[in-house]
């Protein structure tokens, strides 16, 4: 941060903070892993939050949390609006989820992750903690090939045509929720297969970027708005398209829409609306998933697997780390 002019430019913060954000997702994943399979969602959340916060205080820039913890914890260090890092100014925007998929982790199911995004200042969309309808596909397709203004059938057919396959060859990832009953019927009627997931729509969206490996072509459905921003940041780095539309269900949601000064609730947000500049995205597996292996522990040693991607350079690193848990993390 002590550079001439005192400014952190786009390239700088990515280079400076790549390992810093991975250390923070690793620490959160290791802490959350102590609660894997123990039926204690809150315990996992709190442990991950504390561990991530401690690491993020050491980030060599000043970051403002734009998408953060939603206030259920007494630990306010990573709430939206909080300042993190060593720099005193607001150099970068931060979005984070110390434990995405706390119920997955509590039940020891797949795809629980710890996630952080560091983005250029004032480039992340601030969204209320409500639901967001989402559609996402991976890279290599014409912009606007699919969209929330079209039916699932139209979107599936458009993607199948662009891939030169039949609609039957398309697999759509959807959160397993009763609210998706009609969507599931429509997708099946269109001929596509569905992979239902219990939680973890950030991982679901990222899986569209590597269809050969994951078997997932498209992500559809309603999940958290915060997860939408983090998923958009992942696609900013890995390539791909996402659209999101906020969903107001009741008066509480309406109050939040006012509080967050959202002018048009029907607006369809594109990837650029959700994240308009450079970003780095880091995630560490807590439990095993399509994307990453989960934490493994053996005696005083533990291993983690992380992915860190930079939009400005297109680099994608998979980092396998051995941790000696008898020594404190620093
Ligand atoms: C999704 C899922 C998350 O919240 O965003 C979901 O990806 C949405 O809320 O892992 P509901 O659980 O109410 O459907 C999570 O499950 C995190 O809580």
Mind explaining what this structure looks like?
With 330 residues, this protein is an alpha+beta fold. Helices cover 32% and strands 26% of the residues. It has 10 helices and 14 strands. Helix 1 runs antiparallel to helix 2. The N terminus is likely disordered. The structure holds 7-O-phosphono-alpha-L-galacto-hept-2-ulopyranose. 7-O-phosphono-alpha-L-galacto-hept-2-ulopyranose (VTB) binds next to strand 8.
Task: Walk me through the topology.
Layout: H1 10-33, H2 41-56, E1 63-67, E2 83-84, E3 92-100, H3 102-107, E4 113-120, E5 131-137, H4 152-163, E6 171-175, H5 181-189, E7 193-197, H6 201-206, H7 211-214, E8 218-224, H8 225-238, E9 241-247, H9 251-259, E10 269-270, H10 271-274, E11 279-285, E12 296-298, E13 301-310, E14 316-324
Parallel strand pairs: 1-3, 6-7, 6-8
Antiparallel strand pairs: 1-2, 3-4, 4-11, 5-8, 5-9, 9-10, 11-13, 12-13, 13-14
Tally the structural domains. Answer: 2
CATH top-level class of the largest domain: Alpha Beta
Taken as a percent bin, the fraction of beta residues is: 25-35%
Main sheet properties: 8 strands, mixed
Distance between the termini: 20 Å
The helix content is: 25-40%
Low-confidence stretches: 1-8
Net shape: globular
Q: Provide the gyration radius in Å.
A: 19 Å
Architecture (CATH level 2) name of the largest domain: 2-Layer Sandwich
Structural class: alpha+beta
Helical segment count = 10
* Hetero groups: 7-O-phosphono-alpha-L-galacto-hept-2-ulopyranose
* N to C succession of SSEs: HHEEEHEEHEHEHHEHEHEHEEEE
Q: For this structure, what is the CATH homologous superfamily of the largest domain?
A: Fructose-1,6-Bisphosphatase, subunit A, domain 1
User: What do we call the CATH topology of the largest domain?
Assistant: Fructose-1,6-Bisphosphatase, Chain A, domain 1
Mean pLDDT, nearest integer? 93
- Strand tally, please? 14
